[in-house]
Amino acid sequence: MAGLTDNRLLLMSRGVQAYASVPGDSETKEARNSWFAMANYAYGNRYFLDLSGRRDGSSLFAEGHQWATFGAAAIMWNVTGEKFMQSSKKWLDELHVKASYGVTGNANISSNLALALAGVSGNYNGVAGLGVVNPRNSELSWEKVKTLNLALSGRMFKRFTYNFEFFDKKTVDMILAVPVSYTTGFGSRYANVGSLFNRGFEATVGCDIFSTKDLYWNVSANVSYTKNEITKLFNGQDEYAMSDYTKLKVGHPYGEFYMVRWSHVDPADGQNVWLDKYGNETKVYDENNRVFTGKNASAPWQFGLNSTTSWKGLTLELQFAGVFGRSMINQERYFIENPSFATQWNQSTKMFDMWQKPGDNAKLPKFQYGSTSTMSSRWMMSTDYLRVKSLSVGFNAPKSFISQIGLSKARAYFAASNLL
Description:
It is a single chain. It is extended, with a radius of gyration of 30 Å. It is mainly beta. The model has no long low-confidence stretch (mean pLDDT 89). It is built from two helices and 23 strands. The strands form six sheets. A twelve-stranded antiparallel β-sheet has the order 1-2-3-4-7-8-9-10-18-19-22-23, with no helix packed on it.
């Protein structure tokens, strides 16, 4: 193979011949091992205790940090099993109080992040060579998630079901890419440095509206709210810019947009009007006016509604789903609502709402040759939705009919997803 300049580099892809078309290859290996144990205890059908423990090992971490021990405990109290609750059984069918706490480990990382690796790093003066391609971290270890759950669940009037749950999930020793001096030859390395929490609640209620021999109709709804917050970063830092419009900061949620706020188009001259960091209007775009917008890429609120109906072999199932409070940057608008790209991209019909003369209450600023659009909250949009997640209509053939043709069960159905 022409172009191989070092006998120690045996792969064809290591040739340095210009424009050589050669195959490439890669291979990674890892090992995982786990031991676990569980114990369950129940007393008088009223008190329940579950214990679990595990010992996990992964070759992905540094030597001496590859093994970790995790555990969890859960208790439940069947309140309606108590003697003092007997008088309430006429309307309270079940009441359970639950609590749990546990620690789990996360090893969802790429291979060899803890190792100092050498590899073919490029050609120099027509000669292939080896170089350091990955910095070592001799202390890289497991990321840990500590979770507390408190819940109340049960059933009332033989018709209504309910479940209310509070959760507090803390992630510590987060594995993040930490920036380092470029004099090391690298821009960052992975380390256990950060922590954050996710805290919130979930509520689910359901009702058997009809429950007879021929007709059954159940409706259930659920809602959840989650708040996340960064509690620690790296090297004593309390903030770190990740991109032009995202930034990590202690005390703020992960994923909160950090950018200049766009206000409106001035009807008098068609200029963009932004807000400075103090909330004052300005026509001068300045990245120093970037602030946390309070808008997040993750939805804090999620909703669901389910309906199941059956009548004499006919079934109808509906699922609705929705999220609220989520935003995103619509980068497509940056190209299709931008006259600077009019000769490269088909433009949106919203371009008809561009400012043309004084007094226009336009959504888009006036066109200025050679100008470029800036990244601001102008391109931010809400992604809230409520849609029909799934629909299913079915028919179960009567047993008296299908038994005559040698079948025990037959069903025809139609199903569709994401209809609206």
